[in-house]
Structure formats: structure tokens, C-alpha cells
Amino acid sequence: MAAAAASHRRPVKDSDLQKMPAKGGHTTLSDSAKPTATDAVPLPLYITNTVFFTLFFSVVYFLLLRWREKIRNSTPLHVVTLSEISAIVVFFASFIYLLGFFGLGFVQSLIIPRSSHDEILDDDEIIEDFDQMMLKEDSRAAPCAAAPPTDACKISSPKPIKKIVDDFLPVVPLSPEEDEEIVKSVVEGKIPSYALESKLGDCRRAAAIRREALQRTTGKSLDGLPLEGFNYEAILGQCCEMPVGYVQIPVGIAGPLLMNGVEYSVPMATTEGCLVASTNRGCKAIYASGGATSIIMKDGMTRAPVVRFGTAKRAAELKFFLENPLNFESLSQLFNSSSRFGRLQNIKCAVAGKNLYMRFCCTTGDAMGMNMVSKGVQNVLDFLNKEFPDMDVIGISGNYCSDKKPAAVNWIEGRGKSVVCEATIPEEVVKKVLKTDVASLVELNMLKNLTGSAMAGALGGFNAHASNIVSAVYIATGQDPAQNVESSHCITMVEAVNGGKDLHISVTMPSIEVGTVGGGTQLASQSACLNLLGVKGASKEVPGANARLLATIVAGSVLAGELSLMSAIAAGQLVKSHMKYNRSTKDVRK
Ligand code: ADP
User: Fold this and answer.
1) pTM score, two decimals?
2) 39, 171, 371, 384: which one has the fewest Cβ atoms less than 10 Å from its Cβ?
3) Strands 293-303, 251-259: parallel, antiparallel or unpaired by DSSP?
């Protein structure tokens, strides 16, 4: 016990680390591998210590009382009762424990100072611990903590991140002086910044320490970047690593957007002046015109691995195999077994010499679906490897998917939700709300969004500013903002109807990639914005209904944004209103 206790207390590099738990704390590699006697203690160490301390002082007190009584009554000291024998046994037992725990370790630490080699081992171990954790996280099929686990989550049996943190919970809550010691260790490179969460088991404190260390190492102040008021536990292992604070983005509301007979207040997170006001004006015009109609035409997330063969002939053979309808049934069974929600729709193949790109497309319920589709694809690849042993899997993603890059395949085939949204705006509304006329809007759309974009060689960019609205709604609702690349693909069509009096406007957006579960959607602010739209979390009635509704709202908001900006340009108001709303009148020199 004494030796074990000593190993628990052995100083590592800094005094602060002594107070960290041995389990997951800084022990040598061999220490961490070896089970120690204290591991067998069923109670946490500090409780065990408290018990022994209490026992020790209680029996000392008891024995002293008895001693005094015996002297008073002239009873010989060697005549002892059963209770006194027990007290003496407990006295020795607790004395040995406390001596072992506090005495030997201290003496040992003075006699045997730690070698620098040990220190190197420790650092390596921290890195190794963290790498292990990252590996576990990488192998994590999905952030199951945020949502009910699927069977697939169970298959990969990741160690939940919460559990990893629990293992590292400090035995004694640390004080500001101890925080200071840890900051110093981070600055000196003795503790890797990335390992703070796992070492401390307190994400907010880890962020505060990292932030302070960062300020000291860079010599730059982070004043203005808030730390408090954010749940750092919620982002751990799912949304952001090594946090030092959070950026505040104002959320404005455009609306009501009247679409398919329902009114929506659309949250937009942006720092671009005019954007919310302009979208709001578009919503007003749509509302005054009786609302917009939005339809989902297609729903399927994609992932396209790239595999290589020895010959182009073999690559073509796999293409034929995948495209044979007789094989689809068994392939989809394999694919679907990876998730409750992922359902394979089709596989589109493209050959480039000896290489084959297989674009798997599947429905993903209310999730945006990248993790889900990847799991299904992995299942099919494992099977294909047996059928085509000469197949070499080069990568689970071969860019034919295509994620977060402008690509014609998304523009033509669609990715995520393919949506079309339309509205007919009466002449009067065009005049009164949009301050322009139908003919000017039709002409501008033709010359700007169609011809101008064609001249620029646009890929899916046949619109005025779809990405403005997409990005603002994405940030507010916890979508992946990088997917605004393909999610903003949009062609805006404008026509004069009803004898040239009224305006028909539509936006066609083939690849809106949104989800209402997973990723950033579970964070408090983003979740509140989803709640405002009535699409928070998984749909209880029809899986996928919330995500699909969100996609239609995105398209409806884009329609409003297009209508308003196009009108401002047609009326020659753009520069004027931007000067008014985008340029602060504040004297920045002050
Ligand atoms: P993504 O695939 O978009 O990256 P995640 O894998 O992060 O999404 O989140 C999806 C997780 O949510 C999966 O574990 C899935 O089983 C779970 N889930 C719960 N309800 C639903 C639902 N209605 N639709 C889709 N996924 C759901």
C-alpha cells in the first residue's frame, strides 16, 4: 500500500501535477501499465485518506482518555479491555497507512529525484494518451452523445468522450494558484495545450488556462473574445477542439416568411449590415403576395470513394457490377445495416483509367448525413473487397461526392436536398414594397443572373446573393458553414406573367445540405434558432421531415433575399442603402 501510495504522489514535473489523479495523470509508462494497490481501493483516494485520518485521531483521543482514567483510578496500564485492544489495532493500522502514504513517498521523492528521461517519457505519454483519445474519437462513428444511439454507433463501440473525461477527474479541486502552475506548464511546453480537457476534466477551466497560456506565449491580448457564458462541455469531441472562447455573431430575424401556408421567423447570424433588413423586405413582399411555395424534389446525401485496379478493364467490371440492378438489393441491405436512417438510393460510377469513383447517394433522416453515408459506404467497401480482392481502396472520399468544393456533379445531380421555391408578386407589391417595376426586374435578372454569370463561367452561381442568406441561416441554425459552397448553388428565374403585369420569381437550389440533429445543431444557441423555426431535433412523426422543412425554409429565405436585392439594384438603391446600413457613422478615431 505504501509503495502504491508513493507512486500516486510521486512528483512529476510541477507541483500542480502531484494533485492530479494517478489514473490518467502523469505517471511513467510502466506505472500506468502496472496495476497499483490503490487501484484495488473501492473508494476514491481522498475518501480513503479522510477515513484513515478520522480513525487515527479518534483512537488516539480514545486511548488518551482511557489512559487518564487508568492513572486516576490507579489501574495498571497493561490491563486492557477489548475496546482498548481494538483501538490499539486501529491506531497501528491507520498509523502505518498514513506513514506509508505521506512519509515514504516524501522521503523517496527527496532521495530519488526524477530523471530527465522520466520527464520525456511523461510528455510522450501525454501525447500518446491524447493520440489514443483522438484515435478513439476518429473511429467514433457518430457523435452518439448528442442523439439517441443507433445500432451502428454500438457496432463501433467508441468510448464515450464523457467517460474519457470522467477517468481524468481530479481528486482535489484545484485552486487559482494551482491554475497558475498549470498555465506555466503549458507555456513551458510541459503540458500540451490539447491535453488540458482530459487532464483537468473541466472543459471551462481548460479553456481558461489555454487562453491565458496563449496570451502569454503570443504576447497578444484576447480581451474582447468572451470566455464566460458558454458550455464548453457541449463542444467537446464534437464541435471544436482547443477552445479559448467564442466569437459572438449577432442574430437578426427576417420575416414572417409565409411559405406553404405557414409563417416562419427566420434567424440569420451575420455581421453584414443590410442583409437581414433586405431579406425582411423580401419576406414582406412575399407575404403581401399571398406567400411562396417550396417543394423538395430530391433528398440524398452522397459520398464517393475512389478505388484503383491493375487495369481499366477491372475498374469497368466493378462499375458494371455496381450498376447491375440484380446486385443493388444486396448492396443496399449491406449499406442500410449501418444505420437506422441511412437508406441507399443509388450508386453513380465514373471511371478514370484504372480508377473508379462510386458516388453513393442515400437518405439520412434529419441528419445532414455525412457521417451516416460514410458508415454505409465503409460497409459496402468491406464487402466489395472480398468480391474484388484486387481492388485497392485509395480513399473513402475521392472528391466525386463532392463536399465543400464547387463541382458540377452537385449542380447537376444534386446533393442533400434539391429544392425549388416560387412566388408570384403582383405589380402593386413590386411597386409599393420593392420600389421598382416588373420589366426592370426581368431585364436585370436576364442580364445579371443569367448572362452575366454565364460570361463569368459560373458554376451554380446564377443568382444575386444566395450564399449571403444560406450562410447566415446556416450559422444561426448550427449547420456546417463550409457547405455553403454547394448549398448556395442557385438559379434565380424571373418572368413577367399575367399579361406582363405581375412577376413570377423562383429559386432552384439542387444541393442544400442541412440537418436538425448532429454537429452544431445541438448547441444551445443554434438549437434555440431551430426551435424558433419549429424544426429542432429529430422529427417525431416522419424521420427527415425536420431537415427537409429546414431546406425549404432556406430556399424561401433565399427567394426573399433575391427579390429584395434585385429590386434594390434595379431601383439603383444598392449603394445608397449600403452606405446607410453598412457604414457606421461612429467616428472610429475616437
Ligand atoms: P451527420 O451524419 O450529419 O454527420 P451525425 O452522425 O452527427 O450526423 O448525427 C446523426 C446521429 O443522430 C446518428 O447517430 C443518428 O442515428 C442520430 N439520429 C437520431 N434521430 C435521427 C433522425 N431522425 N434522423 C437522422 N439521424 C438521427
Assistant:
1) 0.72
2) 39
3) unpaired
